[in-house]
Design goal:
Radius of gyration: 20 Å
Number of strands: 17
Largest sheet: 7 strands, mixed
Structural class: alpha/beta
Number of helices: 11
Bound molecules: NADP nicotinamide-adenine-dinucleotide phosphate, zinc ion
Helix content: 10-25%
Oligomer: single chain
Order of helices and strands: EEEHEEEHEEEHHEHEHEHEHEHEHEHE
Strand content: 25-35%
Distance between the termini: 19 Å
């Protein structure tokens, strides 16, 4: 099935039009006409080979929403005409301990939506910067009907990546929670932490985001470059979610945790971060990581967002503006997620 897309052919050239074949719809498969696809900073890290694991050509995109156009004979959850979502994974082994516990993201054989070996066609999987995708229904999500579809797309990665650690660390009403970095992940993290009833403090390096942070629901905003402002929050946080995509000083944030507080890193800077272990030892603080979330929890997150009317703040772009969007992402200049209007692919 011929599919139109945008791809990176190497780490340095701009993304450009590309086409390839999707597999025919199998008995358990759903074919989705892609309407919108969010632009995650992971797409950029991968397109530019910043994690040094990219196979080219690479079609990024793992925040996919669209319309079901065909279903296989054994598909139960979807029918033609439904809206549906696909996030960062399209398959896993389904039998290991992680898969059995609904944590497919930790399976040794997770098939990522792009840049993973494609067991059906050979080569690599291609993501959502394309007009169509075929996915086993077990990895397709139901999208709440009351939400704006373009603004739902970012929930499929940025939403679950912030929801999962907030839930895992039992963030509840009255806790003091920090969100570091007000980008795609960060701004949804603020909305979700507020949705769980926390007192939310945003840490930003961008002075022009202060008003937005408050509008998005933050109770306080700290300019993280100002040492005095940082000092006021020493030893006070229950939980901090760090979404920063570039090298930065995590020790400065660890010092802001209370005794037994936890900082969870979800941002993936390409270079190692340095850790002063004293910040953990004094105060028995902990540092963790978190990787997206399983399919069951992703559905739970979407249902929560439907109930609480939570979506992403987006800038809708035509696909030929993707390279410009990447350049702006690097400059932390996004309010607060680029989403590609896939109808623009026909004109590209
Ligand atoms: P984004 O929209 O570009 O946001 C990142 C934010 O980090 C920026 O808006 C900026 O916020 C801050 N920042 C950027 N450079 C900085 C620097 N040099 N120093 C301090 N702060 C800086 O990116 P995103 O899509 O939210 O993704 C964030 C990171 O999470 C990426 O590394 C991505 O690969 C990763 N990610 C991880 C997972 C996972 O499962 N763990 C899932 C998705 C994405 P301010 O302007 O407010 O300072
Ligand atoms: Zn992502
Ligand atoms: Zn598995």
């Amino acid at each position: 099935m011929k599919t139109n897309a945008y791809a990176a052919q190497n780490a340095t050239n701009p993304l450009a039009p590309f086409n390839f074949q999707r597999r025919e719809v199998g008995q358990h498969d759903v074919q989705i006409e892609i309407l919108y696809c969010g632009v995650c900073h992971s797409d950029l890290h991968t397109a530019r080979n910043e994690w040094q694991n990219t196979t080219y050509p690479c079609v990024p995109g793992h925040e996919i929403v669209g319309r079901v156009v065909k279903v296989g004979a054994h598909v139960k959850k979807f029918k033609e005409g439904d809206t549906a979502g696909v996030g960062c994974m399209v398959d896993s082994c389904r039998t290991c301990a992680n898969c059995e516990e609904n944590l497919e993201q930790f399976c040794d054989n997770t098939i990522w939506t792009y840049n993973s070996p494609d067991k059906h066609l050979g080569g690599m999987t291609f993501g959502g910067y394309s007009d169509s995708i075929v996915v086993d229904e077990a990895f397709v999500l139901q999208v709440p009907k009351n939400l704006n579809l373009a603004a739902v797309a970012p929930l499929l990665c940025a939403g679950i990546t912030t929801y999962s650690p907030l839930r895992h660390h039992n963030v509840t009403k009255g806790q003091k929670v920090g969100v570091v970095g007000l980008g795609g992940l960060g701004h949804i993290g603020v909305k979700l932490a507020k949705g769980f009833g926390a007192h939310v403090v945003v840490f930003t390096t961008s002075s022009n985001k202060v008003e937005d942070a408050l509008r998005l629901g933050a109770d306080e905003v700290v300019n993280s470059k100002n040492a005095d402002e940082m000092k006021k929050h020493l030893n006070s946080f229950d939980f901090i979610l760090d979404t920063v995509s570039a090298p930065h000083d995590i020790n400065a944030y660890l010092l802001l945790l209370k005794r037994d507080g936890n900082l969870t890193q979800v941002g993936v800077p390409p270079e190692p971060l340095s850790l002063n272990v004293g910040t953990l030892i004094f105060g028995r603080r902990s540092l963790s990581g978190s990787l997206i979330g399983g399919i069951k929890e992703t559905q739970e997150m979407l249902d929560f967002c439907g109930k609480h009317n939570i979506t992403s703040d987006i800038e809708l772009i035509p696909i030929h503006k993707i390279n410009e969007a990447y350049d702006r992402l690097v400059k932390s200049d996004v309010k607060y997620r680029f989403v590609i209007d896939m109808a623009s692919l026909q004109q590209a």
